[in-house]
Design a protein that fits this description.
By secondary structure, the protein is α+β, with helices and mostly antiparallel strands. It contains 3 helices and 4 strands. The protein has a 4-stranded antiparallel β-sheet with strand order 3-1-2-4. The longest helix has 11 residues.
Length: 93
């Protein structure tokens, strides 16, 4: 299963996977508006992959089949100050 990967110019570390290159017909317009003009990154053969760097391979395949696209969002940023407070038992006001 080949899929095309596009990155967002508006949202850092946000990628859109499509089963067909340049076919955005299954992507809702509000998502395309938020994503901005897609920039093609690469074609991936998912059949030859055992894992992906930041996405669950099974979930990518499932969503490509069911909804026609997969949106990869960046991992949530860690708040180091909150982590330090938890370690020190300090409550936040």
């Amino acid at each position: 299963m080949l899929c095309a990967v596009y990155k967002s110019k508006k949202k850092a570390d946000t990628y859109l996977y499509l089963p067909k290159r340049d076919d955005f017909s299954d992507v809702p317009q509000p998502l395309m508006d938020m994503f901005g003009t897609p920039q093609f990154v690469m074609l991936i053969n998912l059949a030859t992959k055992t894992q992906l760097a930041l996405a669950d391979l099974a979930k990518v395949k499932e969503q490509l089949s069911e909804q026609g696209f997969y949106l990869q969002l960046p991992p949530p940023t860690e708040n180091m100050l909150d982590e330090l407070r938890k370690q020190n038992g300090v409550e936040r006001d």
